[in-house]
Amino acid sequence: MSVRLGFIGTGDLGADHVRRCANIMSGATVSALYNRTQSRAEKVARQFAPQARVTATPEELIESPQVDAVVISSASQTHEELVLKAIQAGKYVFCEKPLATTAEGCERILKTESAIGKRLVQVGFMRVYDQGYLNLKSLVDQKAIGPLLMAHAAHRNPTAGPHYTREMLISETLIHDVNTFHWLLGESFTAAQVLYPRSTSKADAALQDPQLVILETESGVLIDVEVFVNCQFGYDVQCAFIGESGEIRLPEPARATVRRNGQNHTPITMGCKERFETAYDRELQAFVDGVTAGKLTGPDSWAGYVASATADACIRAQKSGQREDIRLIPQPGLYQ
Ligand code: ISE
After folding, report:
1. Which of 159, 173, 177, 180 is the pocket-test mutation for ligand 1 (most atoms within 8 Å of CB)?
2. 256 Cβ contact partners less than 8 Å away, ≥ 6 residues apart
3. EC number(s) (predicted)?
4. Most exposed residue of 24, 32, 115, 262, measured as fewest CB within 10 angstroms of its CB?
């Protein structure tokens, strides 16, 4: 039997999820779409799923008996309310990151899901489905370079729109790295600090782009992440661990090299949809498979909470210029 999905938010990434559901995935159909600008949902329906119903409100989609599970790719500020409505209606929900814009918002979701007593939420941290990161994780798990000491990472976007704020470098971009290290290391963070190098002239000075974020983990691993959302040259994600007996590096995406005109040239990707295309396919397929099996396996609400609580501390550190402590609530039983 096919899982009937309802899609809330059919912007860039939302429409791409509709496309992968219609054209690539198995075991799922596009049943309903909602977008704040209705004509956009209608256009996406015409393009990928003419049989799907376009609803007038997100509530109508969530409550529809024709929708078994909900995929949320709307603006971040809408996530918490929509996730709560979906799980209260007894529906499984895939929610793009962040799960909520604050740790308190995530806590409300943890409470509600725990009271229901069943995992219903998967958060869209797609990197955990990327083959390069999976290779990295298996080497970390095998302790291939002995105890880990530190990690260096970079998260670069070619450009960010004029709407991008200093906080969004953390809440929208760094949050992926936070989740990635939580998953790779299997531990949480105890403190965060943000340093501001000289700003690029290619962006508004108020943005303070790039930023250098330092995270400390429970076991003392020190992580530095360069977040640079107007780097110009490409969409570039880097990660390397330094251990007692070596280094493990995230592989570059496989691209043919071209030798020509006295140069050896390897293209790099220009956007996240291209860089993580397979990971996005796999994460949504995993969600559908989890719904079919009645057991979700992808990043859970606890992962969403840890990421948001850590991001909140980074935003405090942006403002204070100080090292900020990170204190988490006890992990509810449902997620242990
Ligand atoms: C952006 O905000 C996202 O949400 C994307 O998932 C991420 O890949 C990108 O680098 C972020 O800046």
Report:
1. 173
2. 266
3. 1.1.1.18
4. 262
Same domain assignment for residues 290 and 217: no
User: 192 and 328, same structural domain?
Assistant: yes
- Of the candidates 195, 211, 196, 114, the one whose C-alpha atom is nearest the C-alpha of residue 157 is 211
- Looking at the fold, whether 324 and 290 belong to one and the same domain comes out as no
Q: Are residues 14 and 46 in the same domain?
A: yes
What b-and-e string marks burial along 53-78, b requiring 16 or more CB atoms within 10 Å of the CB? bbbeebeebbebeebbbbbbbbebeb
Are 95 and 238 in the same domain? no
Assess whether 23 and 115 both reside in one domain: yes
Task: Judge if 88 and 182 occupy the same domain.
Answer: no
Digit-by-digit pLDDT tens for the chain (336 residues) are 799 999 999 999 999 999 999 999 999 999 999 999 999 999 999 999 999 999 999 999 999 999 999 999 999 999 999 999 999 999 999 999 999 999 999 999 999 999 999 999 999 999 999 999 999 999 999 999 999 999 999 999 999 999 999 999 999 999 999 999 999 999 999 999 999 999 999 999 999 999 999 999 999 999 999 999 999 999 999 999 999 999 999 999 999 999 999 999 999 999 999 999 999 999 999 999 999 999 999 999 999 999 999 999 999 999 999 999 999 999 999 999
Q: How many whole angstroms from 82 Cα to the centroid of ligand 1?
A: 21
